[in-house]
Amino acid sequence: MFIIIGGDGKEYGPVSVEQIRAWLAGGRANLETKAKAVGTDEWRRLGDFAEFSGTGPAAPPPMVTGEIDPKIFADDLIARAAPLDIGGCISRSWELLKSDFWAIVGVTLVVIVVGLVARFIPFIGWLVGLLFSGVLYGGLYFYFLKKVRGQPAELGDAFSGFSVAFGPLVLTSILVILLTMVGFVCLILPGIYLAIAYSFAYLLVIDRKMEFWVAMEVSRRVITASGGGCLAWSSSAPSSRRSACSGWASASSSPCRSSSAHSSTPTRASAIRRLGPERGRII
C-alpha cells in the first residue's frame, strides 16, 4: 500500500499497487509523482519503486545504427529484463484497452477483416496470405505499441507496414510461415515453438528497422530465455494484449514488466521518458 501526493498537494491513500498502476495507465499520475510506502517516512518518485518502474509511457529510444548482431542484442536485452509478470500484463493491458476501447477494437477488426477477405481471393488467396500477413500484423502491432507508449495512434498506423519496411515484413512473413510449417510437419511441437518464438519479429522489423533474420533471431532468443510463462502467454493471448506486452521486444516501456531492471532499454542507449513537469500529479 502507498500514499501519494496529488497535483493539489494533498495526500491520498493508502491505495493499492493496482490502483496506482491504473492511474499511471490512465495518465492521472506518472513516474515523477511523489509517494511513500505505508509505514515509512521517505517520499520518493513512483519510478523509484520496483512495483512501478517501466509502467509509465515513454518515447521510443534512439535507433541502433549499423549492423546488429542478434545474439549480442538479445543477450543485452535478456540481461536487462525482469521476470515476466503475466498477471500484471493482463491487468495493465485491460487498462490500456479501456482507455480507448472502441478505437482499439475497431482498428483490430478492420485489419482482421482485410486479412480474411484477402485470403478468400480466388486462386491467389493463399499467396496473398503468405506474402502480406506479416505486413498486416506488423502494422497492427505497431498501432498497439504506439498506444502502449502513449503516442497518438490512428487507423493508418495499422496499415503502415505497406509503407514502412514493406520488403523486410514480406520476407519475415514468408520465412516465419515456411519454418513454422516445416516444424509442424516434423513433430508438431517444433512448429508450435517457432510460431510463438517468432511472435515479435514483425514488431522488431517495423519499429526497430531490423533486417528480417535479425528480428526473427532476436525474438526467438528473448522469448526462449523468458521461459514457459512467456510461451504460454503468447500462445493464448489475443494479439492486442500480446502486443501490449511486447514493448520490451521493440525497446519500449512495456506495461508488462514490474521490476526496476526494466527501467533500462534493451539497446545501448537509455529510453527517453516523456515526462513533463505538469505530468507528475494526480488530476
Task: List the SSEs and their pairings.
Layout: E1 2-5, E2 11-15, H1 17-25, E3 34-37, E4 44-45, H2 70-80, H3 86-99, H4 101-119, H5 125-148, H6 155-158, H7 166-187, H8 189-197, H9 201-208, H10 212-226, H11 228-236, H12 239-244
Antiparallel strand pairs: 1-2, 1-3, 3-4
Helix pairs in contact: 1-3, 2-10, 4-5, 5-7, 5-9, 7-8, 7-9, 7-10, 9-10
Short account of what is shown:
Helices cover 53% and strands 5% of the residues. With 283 residues, the protein is mainly alpha-helical.
How would you characterize this protein structure?
The chain has two domains: 1-62 and 272-283, Dna Ligase, domain 1 (2-Layer Sandwich); 70-263, no CATH class. It has helices spanning 17-25, 70-80, 86-99, 101-119, 125-148, 155-158, 166-187, 189-197, 201-208, 212-226, 228-236, 239-244, and strands at 2-5, 11-15, 34-37, 44-45. It has a four-stranded antiparallel sheet with strand order 2-1-3-4. By secondary structure, it is mainly alpha-helical. The two termini are 20 Å apart. Mean pLDDT is 76; it is low at 243-283.
